[in-house]
Amino acid sequence: MEIWIRQAPDSDSAKTAKKLGDAFTKASGVPTKVVALFDDFETKLNQQAAQKQLPDIVINDTAQLGTMQSQGWLQEVDKATLAGGDQLSDLAWKAATGSDGKFYGAPFSAQAFALIVRKDWREKVDMEPPETWEDLAKLATAFTEQDPDGNGQADTAGFVAPAGTKRGYASWYASSLIYANGGDFIKPGAPGKYVATVNDPKTVEAVQYLQDQFCKTKTVNPGAVSNDTTISHEVFEKGQGGIYLVGPYVLARFVTSIGTDKIEVLPVPKGPTGGPGTLGEGENVYMMAGSEQQDAQKKFAEFAVSAEGQKIGMNKDANGAIVRLPVNNQVDMAAERQDPRWKVFQESYANAVYAPPVPSWTPIRQDSADAINAVWADCSADVKAKMEELNTKLTQELQSQKAS
């Protein structure tokens, strides 16, 4: 049975996926071939679909559900007959639901976003953990202006931001603050239909807050408007910035590369007119259409969501977790992971907001990233006007997807 996962081929995460496949084979007797791919993952899936040779299982982002389901790639999941399905969190099941209300994946991993902060810098500038957006901006200014690394040079920034347009990163980064202020990109309307809401004052306020960091206080790392996460991780590791709004998957890496005593994890502060909220993401196990091994597909999904499968995927405190936050309520995260900073991500998940199951979230995220990146890159740009333009564009996109 062929299992595809979106991970770099030689990464620690790919090794964890192989461990999961091997453990399933040992438990079930079903041989597995785990294929880890990162670059052009969707392109390669499309090629397989064109040849009617989809893999049996795909472990992929929750945000890809709508796209894959609308192309007829996914088998429906019967939650009632999936062994262990009743042990999985309701929020994770929501992220496995299509726009028709049916389930098209088995929840596998969840994550919410929080702030990874240079604790040593915060203590150097003598400030408390931020509780409001104003506090957060002040901390970023202190990191930028008060030489927190003590090298006598003005070479530190407050925020580290993957604010480029590649793969929609600017939108991805901004979304946690948008959700923390009670804003959104689109909202459900009639059943299976959506309305663009990116011109909502709460959304505008969040994007404006970030434009102010880029343009007024200049507290964002230089070059951020062109960066993706690969570069942003390195910027944070090199001590070029001290506040990184990101998911838990880099925590183990930063503990090793920066030092465990130098970093802390803090919740995203609630916005001035809304919240709380943060971006929720994760992966589902998708049972792909056309497989001749439907029984084995179901068995693998059941193993992956079981307490045993979840623990293998978590990989304790080591790098390479493919289960970030467990979705099975029988798993005690504190017993699996000794690092208490994971708990902040887990608590943030209670207010996580997932991408909605529109037929294709990708163009919505990309259009949003292009518009948001533009107001960060051009300090003369009017945020409210740009968000009105984006709202029109998202409305047209929803119409083209027959989702409005």
Describe, in plain words, how this protein is organized in 3D.
The chain is an alpha/beta fold. Helices cover 41% and strands 15% of the residues. The protein is built from 16 helices and twelve strands. The strands form three sheets. Strands 1, 2, 3, 4, 11 and 12 form a six-stranded mixed beta sheet that branches. Helix 1 (12-28) links the parallel strand 1 and strand 2. Helix 7 packs across helix 8 and helix 7 crosses helix 15 (362-377). The model has no long low-confidence stretch (mean pLDDT 96).
Put the structure in a nutshell.
The protein is an alpha/beta fold. Helices cover 41% and strands 15% of the residues.
Helix/strand layout:
Elements: E1 2-6, H1 12-28, E2 33-37, H2 41-50, E3 57-61, H3 65-70, H4 90-94, E4 106-112, E5 114-118, H5 119-124, H6 133-145, E6 157-160, H7 169-180, E7 186-188, E8 194-196, H8 201-215, H9 229-237, E9 241-246, H10 251-257, E10 263-266, E11 278-287, H11 294-305, H12 307-314, H13 333-336, H14 342-349, E12 352-353, H15 362-377, H16 383-400
Parallel strand pairs: 1-2, 1-3, 6-9, 11-12
Antiparallel strand pairs: 3-11, 4-11, 5-9, 5-10, 7-8
Helix pairs in contact: 7-8, 7-15, 8-15, 15-16
